[in-house]
Amino acid sequence: MNSLEANGNLDETILHEMGHVLGIGTLWSRSGLLVGAGGANPRFTGAEATAEYNRIFGVNESSVPVENTGGPGTRDGHWRESVFGEELMTGFLDGSLPLSRVTAASLGDIGYEVDLDAADSFVPSGIDFASDSSAAIV
């Protein structure tokens, strides 16, 4: 805790873990919203999060890419770092971690009432879709 506080990451870490407590990454499978778990291209299929993902990233996909690397607790329970870059619910602590409209909308997909306008400003810092086929739905 002291090192998280000293590095200025304590607040983001608490918010991230509270996201899991609310069900982000932890209720996806039980809610039938996670496909391809354990494989090369796991995806979150919630309609609200997918709509926000498509709008923000300028794509037309049927789901949101979920982390496909890391061990238990990272893989299949976070947004894909290589796509989202710095976002609160990726599995890696780096830089500023805004809560995007995708994350807020995913809470709507699991049953919460959400205000998407309360999400943080988010600009994807991950991959270039035109050059990375792993981001495409298969």
Detailed description of the structure:
The chain is mainly α and 138 residues long. It has one domain (2-135): Leishmanolysin , domain 2 (Leishmanolysin, domain 2), CATH 3.90.132.10. 30% of the residues lie in helices and 4% in strands. The chain has five helices and three strands, in the order ααββαβαα. Strands 1-2-3 form a three-stranded antiparallel β-sheet. α3 (47-57) packs antiparallel against α5 (101-109). Residues 129-138 have low confidence and may be disordered.
Reading off the top of the CATH hierarchy, the class is best stated as: Alpha Beta
User: Poorly predicted ranges (pLDDT <50, ≥5 residues)?
Assistant: 129-138
Mean pLDDT: 89
Please report the total strand number as a whole number. 3
- The percentage helix is 25-40%
Features:
about 140 residues, Leishmanolysin, domain 2, 3-stranded antiparallel β-sheet, disordered C terminus, metalloendopeptidase activity, Peptidase_M8, zinc, protease
Compact description:
It is built from five helices and three strands, in the order ααββαβαα. The protein has helices at residues 2-6, 10-22, 47-57, 81-84, 101-109; strands at residues 34-35, 43-44, 64-65.
